[in-house]
Amino acid sequence: MIKGGPKKDLQTKQIQSILISQPKPETEKSPYFELAKKFNVKLDFHPFIRVEGLSAKDFRKQKIDIPNFTAVIFTSRNSVDHFFRICEEMKIKVSQDCKYFCITEAIALYLQKFILYRKRKVFYGADGSTKSLLEVMNKHRDNEKFLFPSSDSQKKDIEEWLKTYKCEYATATLYKTVSNDVKAVMAENVYDMIVFFSPYGVKSLFENMPEFEQNGTRIGAFGPTTSAAVEDAGLRLDLKAPVPQAPSMPAALEQYLTLINKK
């Protein structure tokens, strides 16, 4: 399998089409649409993965008593959605004294959809990193019993931290990540660039197209684990985000397109 194209061609060929491996943004004000307009680039959106929730029956097999925990850790909106879905299906009433530790402020604010938001009960990291979340949790580690609702691809570094500091905790698998069928999208189009946001997106690519050849296709990745998955798959990583100068993928793409397309 040929996975890399000549470097010289990559530096001179302009990007005219990009496949974003996420759902199409619902708002017209998305920075992605601004990028498409500014650089006259075709942007297609197609999620490479989807999330499937575990049933209450399957959750019960984990023998986790949710009311027995005093704090819940959330690292995504999916974990929030499926935690409260399971609680509703099992008719579990979450204590008003429960604390919530969220990896980003956006996820913390998303909790307002499910609870009466109180600042002294909701905490989040300063910069959206796992490190900043753990710094906040560290102040409470001796007094809380943590529940870490997650998918089958949970953040291992958080669980390692909980183990290291001998915290009382349990991980609860509430949903799983599965591959979408992207064969038709890939067969009908030739993209100059594909952007991934999860290691499972990279896995989905090869599940759909085991003989995928990168050649001159640029690859972008958001997040360190996604970047590692791209390189572990033997692909050439052309764009890595976030970085200090580009904290989001749209910002990183804008810088990259400015360089490559000479706009």
Automatic annotation (TrEMBL):
Pfam families: HEM4. SUPFAM superfamilies: HemD-like (SSF69618). GO terms for biological process: uroporphyrinogen III biosynthetic process. InterPro entries: 4pyrrol_syn_uPrphyn_synt_sf, 4pyrrol_synth_uPrphyn_synth, UROS/Hem4. GO terms for molecular function: uroporphyrinogen-III synthase activity. Residues 38-249 form the Tetrapyrrole biosynthesis uroporphyrinogen III synthase domain. One of its GO terms (cellular component) is cytosol. This is Uroporphyrinogen-III synthase. It comes from Chitinophaga oryziterrae. Transmembrane segments: none annotated.
